[in-house]
Sequence to fold (473 residues):
Amino acid sequence: MCSPKTLSAGLSSNQGSSLFTAGNLSNKSILAGACAKRSFTGARPLKGIAGSVPEFTTTSGDGARKTANSVAYWLIGTSGLVFGIVVLGGLTRLTESGLSITEWKPVTGSLPPMNQQEWEEEFTKYKDSPEFKQLNSHIDMDEFKFIFFMEWIHRLWGRAIGVVFIAPAVYFAMRKRTSPQVNKRIFGLCALLGLQGFLGWWMVKSGLDQEQLEARKSKPTVSQYRLTTHLGAAFLLYLGMLWTGFDILKENKWMKKPIDASALFKKLDSPMLRPLRKLSTALLVISFVTAMSGGMVAGLDAGWIYNTWPKMGETWFPPKRELMDSNFARREDQKDLWWRNLLENPTTVQLVHRTFATVAFFAVFGVHMYAVKKKPFIPKNVQMSIHTLMGIVTLQVGLGIFTLLWLVPVHLASTHQAGALALVTSSLILMNQLRRPRAGIRNVINSTLAKELKRSTQQAGTKIMSETAKLAK
Ligand code: HEM
Fold:
């Protein structure tokens, strides 16, 4: 809310109140000016007003250009498409469709086979793949068409994201709708998107190449390392788009309402929020790492063993010889025993995922308890986010447990994957809400407020002079 009280609160309390009372300011004019202000020039240090307002130091900012809200909506919308493709990618894996297209043709591959002859050709190529020979030699053309279309839609969706992302990115940059800082981020996201296309094919290749499969002593499935890298890049792309979109909306809102922004900055600067800020970063990292360990479980089909919870079979932990099985070591001196088991042994990988999930749950629970205890110091929106996070992590753990107990049914496993995205999203929102404003935006807000005060002081001074002159007459 715009009010003289909040405007003065934005500056140091003494400065604000002394200016308002001593100068007998026209509050309305301050409010009208400060609240209506929409565009700002770059941050510039201001001279103090009657010695009461300090000089604000100039720090790095964006320059004069701010990013349009439409850019934020586009980024958040595109992140929704990335959410969708992650879930679709999971479904492609769960329906074992991912290895049905044996080539990578970024442009010509946009079209599916158009007639019977083209379908026959495509099927013949698939018949030459290790997956068909070792696992799927029984399937007919109709079944092939189903797995083909699952993978084809996944790839087409990826191409669509490329177009929906890159074309507007160029347009916004050319129309100067983006600040230089946002331009850099969008460029980074474009690069990540391009890389993601390569990672997808790099992953698929690991399931088509007989030599690689033999080296891994694996049935025809993709490497769990490559699957998790592909999944991780998708999560990063998604989070990067959301983070940038939220930042733009937040900063534009602050610039539109500098008084509110200034009061919020004061809250965010409070030492009481410092631990929570650090914890929110930790939560995002833990959620992300847990999700990646889930990718390893999925990549190794490790959800098909130990389908019990909370115990693993009859005991809390599988026997050590099974967790650290020497068959997984490839070096003669067995120096790789530990890490190979942690990353390649399905039993150990499942235990790792259970452990991370437990840590993630209790970390969120701990933060929730902390937030309840410190409620008076925590902004309302932050409290809401923590409650939401608590709900989502509980749901996610429940989904994970039932995915395991019920032997990885497609609908549950897919919902569990979407739940992981929801979890990182809510962690990201919490972290974004608690982040202190960067120096550039703080500077813009401060100089806007100082300008408004200066202008109002001058107006009030003129009014006093004219009133005094009237009285003197
Ligand atoms: C914070 C909690 C959790 C997160 C963020 C999380 C995240 C994930 C992710 C991202 C995947 C990969 C999905 C895919 O690529 O298809 C996954 C798979 C899996 N998770 Fe979790 N998980 C959590 C908790 C749990 C728990 C508590 C269990 C069971 C005790 C569990 C069991 C599984 C299983 C069995 C899979 C493999 C499903 C498949 O093959 O598709 N998860 N998890």
Observations:
- Residues 165 and 298 are 29 Å apart (CA to CA).
- The longest helix spans residues 141-174.
- The chain has two domains: 66-256, 261-437.
- Residues 1-64 have pLDDT under 50 and may be disordered.
